[in-house]
Structures are given as structure tokens and as C-alpha cells.
Design brief:
The chain has about 800 residues and is of the alpha+beta class. The chain folds into four domains: about 1-165, Beta Polymerase, domain 2, CATH 3.30.460; about 185-305, Four Helix Bundle (Hemerythrin (Met), subunit A) (Up-down Bundle), CATH 1.20.120; about 455-580, no CATH class; about 595-810, 2-Layer Sandwich (Alpha-Beta Plaits), CATH 3.30.70. The protein starts with a helix and ends in a 14-residue tail after the last helix. Pfam families: GlnD_UR_UTase, HD. Its cofactor is Mg(2+). This is Bifunctional uridylyltransferase/uridylyl-removing enzyme.
């Protein structure tokens, strides 16, 4: 009798294989679409299991039950997925359990159906889930198929209860296992042959979100709902499931890696076009899921109870970062009095704060901005452009910021032209990234080259836009130049700056193409490049840096010594032909301001046309230390110097500053005047106070999964502690041998102008004039100095001054031992 029953179930399993094959054979209109196929396969396998279980004696009162785990449990049965089953029993006799299990498993094995099985009592199932994280995650999806429902319910409810109560202890292991899986399997969005199941942004990540939701530490769709630009996590999940379903059907077996040779057929089956259209859909879906997982893990970390001594800490305070922007619980959030509906620049201020601090933007903040923030007027206010430059100048931190803005629809609102390159796959295998990510990567690399050029702001803007013409047909350099002109006008660039950015986009391939394909010894080659650039030395300098950033951001091996030497040789030859840069010069003295010199120390503060920006004018008898003291007083008042002009005449100095408060409004000019007089009298130790202010900012604590607050990614006073690019000090000889012009190219920091001026004063040199320009997070500060009072030979004094200047500007952080670029 047992043999007859076994042969019957074996025949049934063979019928199961035939039925599955029939479902997969359809052609044309008879061919089941991927979602319908999964539903049909789920019903087919459930029918076989319930029928077979009844034949072998698994009934509601038998003390046995069959639980489905994995795809069958989630009703996501794929053509050649393994069956993942658990046979539960109520502590039955071992011989009986073995007999029932054999009759259930052997027919599936004989029919060559993949099977992952286990036999457990309720207690054993709970013990396994408690000790094995992978098993616990699988059992969270468990669903009763047949048999004793109470037995199944006891396991399912027990697993969920156990998961919720133990999530605090298991969360570190869960986070570590997730990142280890990403390291092994890579990122679906940027892999030629992605792992749809285990890769970052894949199906395992959706299951992770479900597990965190079951633990009640985050919702099932953190960060992105169905109304998001990409349709949210559910839509992204469905699309990847559809691709994996067709991958199984095309391959004729279970497979997780999408092979390049199968992509066109799968794309056609899903009616997506070709393999490039398929890659774009996958990239969009994976990045949507990946962003949601980042938000989910972060939300869960903040939601979990603290352990050990950290339980005694006070509730995290709200630390101001910018106007309407604060840090809270390790995230950048809106201040309580922020009014997004009436503050168009708030989006960029939030982004800039996240970029310089390395802190993530709160998902709820991004949702609120997406729902209520108005459009920026055209042209953009200068403050919004400055904040964009801060983001682009923040290096690797810009990648996560722009990705978050893009996934939530805010980046597309700021730059509508981005839609054509969003998730656009590269046509050349040498490219690692999608086109939009390549643009951001190029800007990140360019931020490390900003001290090599006189206009770091134009470098990062050109890097961001250099391939913006792709995806539209035609020569992307020509098309991109027109689009860059459109974007530049909207950003509010000066006409001369706009012309440079447009030329960078139009000619971003000129140097590499010429250097690697033409004879550099032929004078006509150099003449062609110089004529194309109109003899503009500044444009040549920018294109040189852009060529390097573009190559590095393309992929491994694209930039090397051979290419660098060829382009460097070409640029050197061109420099011998084009006219050099004009040296920095002092601004003329305003007679109206100089007329107020008889009033003693004068400090005026007036608003500019731009919000959150003010003009500060200091007129006083010229004396050594005036510039450093005036700049130090502004820094202590949390006023960031955006630009400055320092001039003097008839024994009086006129210092004009354009400043922006870190948050709130500026102090009264009378208070600034009082503090300046105190500092000039030696009653206010400015440098000591500035150091103390930085130390206080470094000591701020941040809970959650964030790095130590004192690490290189944290910021002080809204500016990073470490630079993206190495600082440079340039010297130019003046007409008088005792005079020189010093240009400092570096990353900004609170009170930097005060520190730089103090260096000159310490070495006994007089600052005759100064022109200060802050562009994003970079500064280009030029000082006209008199070296005659230094008491040492000029060459020696220059060396000492340069070493002292380098000691006060931010230097790049030393690379971490485990720092690996993805």
C-alpha cells in the first residue's frame, strides 16, 4: 500500500513538471505575462502540495503541517525556483515523521524539482530562528499550506514575536550581514551582469525591509511611497521580479545573475525595447530599493533602544546647521520654525548641510520639501547657487546627497534636464556608471582638483554637466553645450562664467582626443587647440582638470601615466602660445568710505538684495592686525565671509566683507564695533576663542549608526574639517622686490581669513590689500604683502610664511585603511 501511494505521488510530481512546462510554453497572446505566470505557478505548486499531503496523511488533525518559506510563501513562485518547505510535527514518533517526510520529499526529488526542506517541531523551529539569522529571515515569510493550522500559527506567531523582542540584539548582525552581502554581490544599478537576488537594490533588500517592518522599527516603504517619481518600492520590487521571472524562463533553469546575452530576449519579453532599456529599468528599480534600504536601516537604528551607558544620555539636541536647518538624531532635518512653503532656497540649504557634514537628510524632511517647497525662481538666487557649489565641492559626500534628492524627485525639480540621463546605461563597456551617476562621480573627483584652477566653481559645474547631452541623439558635446547654456542661465551665472561652462561642455573631449590621436610635435596640432579655445588660458586650465576627473570617473584604468603625460604635454605646449592669466589686483578705494575715516573705528552692517547676506564695512586707521581682528570678530559672530576687499589710502584701511550668518540674523553693528575695539586692544583673544569654538563643535554627539563625531567627515560651523583638494600657495612677484602677491587656494573653514591674516602679521609682513572670494567650499584669497619688515631674506621669509599658511588651511584627511571606492 505504501509503495502504491509513493508511486502515485511520484506520478503526481511528474504531472507537476509537465504542468509547469505547459505554463512556460505559451507563445504570443497565449504566453503568460510574468506576474500571471508567478501566480499560476504558486497555485500549481500549492495544489500539488495540498493533494499530496492529503494522500500521505497530513490533515488538519494529524499533528503535521506544511509551511512554505521563500518564493512560494510570498506568492512569488518563479519557474525554476527551489521549493522551500518546512514539515512541522507535534512531537510525533520519529518513524512516523520519517515516513511522512519521505513520501513528501521523494516525489519532488525524483521529478528533479529543487527542494530546500527541513523537519521541525515548533520548539525546534523557534530555536533555529533564534540562533540562525538567515533562517530567521526566511521564516518571517512563512505561510501555512496544509495540515494543522494551529501548529503553523504557533510557529509563525512565535517567530514574529521572537523577532520583535530580539531585534535590538540582532540588528548589528543584520546590518553587518547586509553590507557583507552587498560587498559580495555588488550593486545591481552599476553591474553589467547584476545579481537580481542578492545584489544591492535587489530582492533580498526588499525582504530586509519587510523584516524591519515586522520588527516595527520602520515602515515597509521607508523614504519612498507609491507617489514617488519611480513608483516606490513596491513598483521597483515588481519590476525586478518580472525580470528574474523572464530570466528563469529564458535560461530554462534557476538563475539570479542576468547575463548580457540574455538581456535582449528578456527585454523583448517584457516589452521594454532592447537591453539598454532593460538596464535602465533595472537601474531605476535598484536605486529606488537601495535608497529605501538606507533609510530603513537608519530609521531602525534610531528607533532601537540604546544599550549600556548610552541609555543615560539625554535626548539628542537640535544643533543648528543653517537657516531653517538643524541636525537631530544624526540626520539633517528642518528646524521647527522652518517654512518650506515660503522658502524656495530651503532645498539647497538642506542639501548643502548634508554634504558638508556627511549626515544623511531625513526622509521625512525630503518628503515635506517634495510636497510643499515652491520652485526656485529663475535665475536662482545667489545663495541657492552657492549651496549647489557647496554640494558639488563636497567630494564623495555629494553622491549620497544627490542620489537622495533624485530618488525623491527634488533633483529633477531643480534640474529638469536631468531626466534624459537619469539611469541611462553607458553604451561603452569601459564606463562603470550610468550617465547620471558618472556626472556626479566626475564632479566628486573634480572637487579634489579645485586648487589646481583659478575657478573651482566653474570646474565642478562643468564636471556635473559635461555629458548632459547624452541620451538625446546627435553629438552629445554639441547638444550638451546648448543644454548647459539653458541650465547656466537658470542658475544665474554671469554671462562670462556661463560662456566658460558652455565651452567646457562643448570641448570636454578636445584635450584627450587630441593628445591621444594626433602628433603633438606638429605645430598645427597645438594651433588647432589654441584656436578652438580662443586662446583662453583659464579655459585650458579647466579643461585639463576636467579631462582628468572625467577619465578617473569613467572606470579603472582609463586614467594612467601614459594618458596623463600626453595631455600634460599638450597643455604645456598650448600654454607657451596662449596669453597668461591676469594677476590679482586691489580694488579701488571708495572715496565716500574713506571720507568717514575721521570718525575713528566705523563698522556698518547693511542687508544686500539677497536674503541671509549682508555687507559689513570696517573703516579704521590702518594698523597691523586690523584685517585679522576684523575677520576674527565676524567669525566669532558666526558670520561666514563670502567675499572681501581690503584696501587702504592716506593711513586708513577700508575693509569690505560680504557675509552670511550660519543661522538666524546678524548681530548689531554696534556690538561688532565693540568687539573689534576689544580685540585691537588685546582684550579679546580671537584665535583662542576660535579654537575653542571648533573644539566645542567637534564634541557634539550623534547617536545611531553614524561614525564618531570627530572623524574626518564631520563639519564645524557648517564647513568640513578636512579638504577635498590639497591646498596650494601661489607666489607672484611685485614691481617692488620687497612686495609680492600671495594667492591661497584651499578649502574654507570658520575664521580662515582671520588665521591667514594673522600668519602675515606674525611674520612681520604688512597686508597692503586683499581680495577674498569664497566659491562653494573653496576659497581663492589673494594678498598683496610687504615683506620688508620681516627681518629675514625674502626667500627665507617666503618659505616660512608658506609653511605657516599651510598649517592653518584644511588639509585632506589621511586615507582610511579600509577606504575603498565602490
Amino acid at each position: 500500500m505504501a509503495t502504491e501511494r509513493a508511486s502515485g505521488t511520484t506520478a503526481g510530481a511528474t504531472d507537476l513538471v509537465r504542468a509547469r512546462a505547459k505554463l512556460l510554453e505559451g507563445r504570443g497572446r497565449a504566453r503568460l505575462a510574468a506576474p500571471a505566470l508567478r501566480e499560476a505557478l504558486t497555485d500549481l505548486f500549492e495544489l500539488w502540495l495540498t493533494t499530496t499531503a492529503s494522500e500521505v496523511g497530513i490533515t488538519p488533525d494529524s499533528g503535521f503541517a506544511v509551511l512554505a518559506v521563500g518564493g512560494l510563501a510570498r506568492r512569488e513562485m518563479l519557474p525554476f525556483s527551489d521549493l522551500d518547505l518546512v514539515l512541522l510535527h507535534d512531537d510525533m514518533e520519529p518513524a512516523l515523521v520519517s515516513d511522512v517526510a519521505d513520501k513528501l520529499w521523494y516525489p519532488l526529488w525524483d521529478a528533479h524539482i529543487g527542494l530546500d526542506h527541513s523537519v521541525r517541531t515548533t520548539g525546534q523551529a523557534l530555536d533555529v530562528a533564534a540562533s540562525d539569522l538567515t533562517a530567521a529571515l526566511g521564516l518571517l515569510d512563512a505561510r501555512h499550506i496544509v495540515g494543522d493550522k494551529e501548529l503553523s500559527a504557533a510557529v509563525v506567531s512565535g517567530i514574529v514575536r521572537q523577532w520583535r523582542s530580539g531585534i535590538r540584539d540582532r540588528f548589528p548582525e543584520l546590518s553587518e550581514a547586509t553590507r557583507a552581502r552587498w560587498n559580495r554581490s555588488g550593486d545591481i544599478a552599476h553591474r553589467a551582469e547584476p545579481d537580481l537576488k542578492s545584489g544591492r537594490g535587489g530582492l533580498r533588500d526588499v525582504q530586509l525591509l519587510d523584516a524591519l517592518s515586522l520588527a516595527q522599527v520602520t515602515d515597509a516603504m521607508p523614504g519612498l511611497g507609491p507617489d514617488s517619481p519611480s513608483g516606490g518600492v513596491q513598483e521597483a520590487h515588481r519590476r525586478i521580479l518580472d525580470v528574474r521571472t523572464e530570466l528563469h524562463r529564458v535560461a530554462g533553469r534557476g538563475r539570479d545573475h542576468l547575463r548580457a546575452q540574455d538581456a535582449d530576449e528578456i527585454a523583448a519579453a517584457l516589452r521594454l525595447g532592447d537591453r539598454f532599456d532593460l538596464a535602465r529599468v533595472l537601474t531605476d528599480s535598484a536605486r529606488t530599493i537601495g535608497y529605501s534600504v538606507d533609510v530603513g536601516l537608519r530609521t531602525a537604528a534610531n528607533a532601537l533602544p540604546r544599550r549600556g551607558l548610552s541609555r543615560l544620555r539625554l535626548v539628542p539636541v537640535r544643533r543648528p546647521l543653517d537657516e531653517g536647518v538643524v541636525e537631530h538624531a544624526g540626520e539633517v532635518v528642518l528646524a521647527r520654525d522652518a517654512r518650506p512653503t515660503k522658502d524656495p532656497g530651503l532645498i539647497m540649504r538642506v542639501a548643502a548641510a548634508a554634504a558638508v557634514t556627511g549626515l544623511p537628510m531625513s526622509a521625512s524632511t525630503l518628503r515635506r520639501l517634495s510636497d510643499s517647497a515652491p520652485e526656485l525662481r529663475e535665475p536662482w538666487p545667489k545663495e541657492a547657487l552657492d549651496d549647489l557649489l557647496v554640494v558639488l565641492g563636497s567630494g564623495r559626500r555629494a553622491v549620497a546627497v544627490i542620489e537622495a534628492l533624485d530618488r525623491t524627485g527634488l533633483w529633477g525639480r531643480l534640474m529638469p534636464e536631468w531626466g534624459a540621463v537619469r539611469d541611462l546605461p553607458p553604451r561603452d563597456a569601459v564606463h562603470t556608471w550610468t550617465v547620471d551617476r558618472h556626472l556626479v562621480e566626475t564632479a566628486a573627483v573634480a572637487s579634489g582638483l579645485t586648487t589646481r584652477v583659478a575657478r573651482p566653481d566653474l570646474l565642478v559645474l562643468g564636471a556635473l554637466l559635461h555629458d548632459i547631452g547624452k541620451g538625446r541623439g546627435g553629438d552629445h558635446s554639441v547638444v550638451g553645450a546648448d543644454i548647459a547654456a539653458q541650465i547656466g542661465r537658470r542658475l544665474g551665472l554671469w554671462p562670462s562664467d556661463l560662456a566658460v561652462v558652455v565651452a567646457m561642455v562643448r570641448h570636454h573631449l578636445l584635450l584627450p582626443d587630441t593628445a591621444t590621436r594626433r602628433d603633438l610635435d606638429d605645430p598645427a596640432t597645438v594651433e588647432r587647440v589654441v584656436d578652438t579655445l580662443g586662446g583662453d588660458a583659464r579655459l585650458l586650465e579647466l579643461l585639463h582638470a576636467l579631462a582628468e576627473a572625467d577619465s578617473i570617473a569613467t572606470g579603472p584604468g582609463v586614467w594612467g601615466e601614459w594618458k596623463a603625460s600626453l595631455i600634460g604635454d599638450l597643455v604645456h605646449r598650448c600654454r607657451l602660445v596662449v596669453a597668461g592669466e591676469t594677476l590679482p589686483e586691489p580694488d579701488p578705494v571708495d572715496p565716500a568710505l574713506l571720507a568717514r575715516a575721521d570718525e575713528g573705528v566705523v563698522v556698518d552692517l547693511t542687508p544686500t538684495d539677497a536674503p541671509h547676506t549682508f555687507d559689513v564695512t570696517v573703516v579704521a586707521p590702518d594698523r597691523r592686525g586690523l584685517l585679522s581682528n576684523a575677520a576674527g570678530v565676524l567669525a566669532l559672530a558666526s558670520l561666514r565671509v563670502l567675499s572681501a576687499s581690503v584696501t587702504s589710502a592716506r593711513g586708513h584701511a577700508v575693509n569690505r566683507f560680504v557675509v552670511s550668518p550660519a543661522f538666524g540674523g546678524p548681530p548689531e553693528p554696534g556690538l561688532l564695533r565693540q568687539e573689534l575695539i576689544r580685540s585691537l586692544d588685546g582684550d579679546l583673544p580671537l584665535l583662542e576663542r576660535l579654537e575653542a569654538k571648533e573644539a566645542e563643535a567637534r564634541s557634539a554627539s550623534t547617536p545611531g549608526l553614524l561614525p564618531d563625531p570627530a572623524d574626518s567627515m564631520r563639519a564645524v560651523g557648517g564647513l568640513p574639517l578636512h579638504a577635498q583638494a590639497p591646498p596650494r600657495i601661489l607666489w607672484f612677484d611685485g614691481e617692488d622686490p620687497a612686495q609680492a602677491v600671495v594667492e591661497v587656494r584651499a578649502e574654507d573653514r570658520p575664521g580662515l581669513l582671520c588665521r591667514l591674516a594673522a600668519v602675515f602679521e606674525t611674520h612681520g609682513t604688512d597686508v597692503l590689500w586683499a581680495k577674498v572670494a569664497t566659491r562653494g567650499t573653496s576659497v581663492i584669497d589673494a594678498f598683496g604683502i610687504d615683506l620688508s619688515g620681516g627681518g629675514e631674506p625674502t626667500s627665507v621669509l617666503r618659505g616660512e610664511i608658506e609653511r605657516s599658511l599651510l598649517a592653518v588651511v584644511p588639509a585632506p584627511a589621511p586615507p582610511a585603511e579600509d577606504d575603498e571606492r565602490p
